[in-house]
Structures are given as structure tokens and as C-alpha cells.
Amino acid sequence: MGAQPFEAFKRIIDEEIAAAQQLLGKGVPRSRLYAEFMKNAKDRPTPPRRRVPDPNAVYKVPIDPDDPVKGPADALVTIVEFSDFQCPFCSRVRATLDQIVRTYGNDVRIVFKHNPLPFHREALPAAIAAMEVFEQGGADKFWKYHDILFDNQRQLTRENLE
């Protein structure tokens, strides 16, 4: 949870790849790995109680066809990123995720989920614009626009988004 250095992700990814390889050895097809990992995962805490999620728990996170994805569907590890294009902390994660993709290649997929925070006025318009790019141009265009948005967080005006 939260922005973490590459080393923290590396430790977890290496453990998850080992677990995925065990499942593959038991006959689980690559295309079913994520579903198999999520089989015993917990449902996420929901408002209004606003409990803090347990950082050591695995929570069920559905992957929808309308979620932008980088990497193959049958990757050994899936990282689901909840992010806000106006959040300075969220932008710091990009370099780490880029390093993960370079290091692990097709063994990892990144799934993007929008989480525009209400106190970031331009976050929701940026999320809407990014999904419009995704719908019109697909995942490659989305990820290019994603990078542009994070590179220009302080200029997320409607005119600039268009």
C-alpha cells in the first residue's frame, strides 16, 4: 500500500512469482493464475466505516475489460494501481512501476484503477480524459497520456486535457 521503493516491490514480486510457478507446477494454467490467487482474498473494507485496510491482507480486486492494462493477461504477477493524476505521491510511483516492467517484462502486468481524490479539483477531469483516450486509442495511447498527465500535474486544466 502506498508509494514504495523498487526494492519493496521486488521482494513481493519475487515471492509472488515463486508462488505462481508453484501453481503452474500443479497444473493451473497461466490464464487462471490471477483468479486462483484471488480465490481466498478478502473483500475490501467499504465506507461508511472507512476502516484502514490491512497492509498484509490480500483483497479481491476485479479486473474489468475497461481497465487500462500494461502487460499480458497471463502474467505471473498482477499489480493493481489505484491512482490520482493530480496527486504528487501517486506520480512518484511511476518510476518504480517502470523499473518493475523493465526488470520483470511479461511476468508482470499493471492494471490502472482511477481514484481521483475529492480535494484534487482537476483529478476527476483528468481521469475522464484519460479514459476517453483509452476508449478511442486503446491501452498504448492511455499509457502515453498517463505519462503526459503525471509529467504535467500542475497544468491539468480543461484546455490542456483536451
Question: Could you please describe the fold and organization of this structure?
Answer:
- The structure is a single chain.
- Strands 1-3-2 form a three-stranded mixed β-sheet.
- The protein has helices at 6-25, 33-38, 88-104, 123-151, 158-161; strands at 69-70, 77-83, 108-114.
- The two termini are 32 Å apart.
- The mean pLDDT is 88.
- With 162 residues, the protein is mainly alpha-helical.
- It is globular.
Order of helices and strands: HHEEHEHH
Q: Count up the helices.
A: 5
What fraction of residues sit in β-strands?
A: 5-15%
Q: What is the tally of beta strands? A: 3
- Helix content range of the residues, please? 40-55%
Structural class: mainly alpha
Q: Report the end-to-end length measured between terminal Cα atoms.
A: 32 Å
Give the biggest sheet.
Answer: 3 strands, mixed
User: Which residues form runs of ≥5 with pLDDT under 50?
Assistant: none
Average pLDDT value?
88
What spatial order of strands do you see in the largest sheet? 1-3-2
Shape: globular
The rounded Rg comes to 16 Å
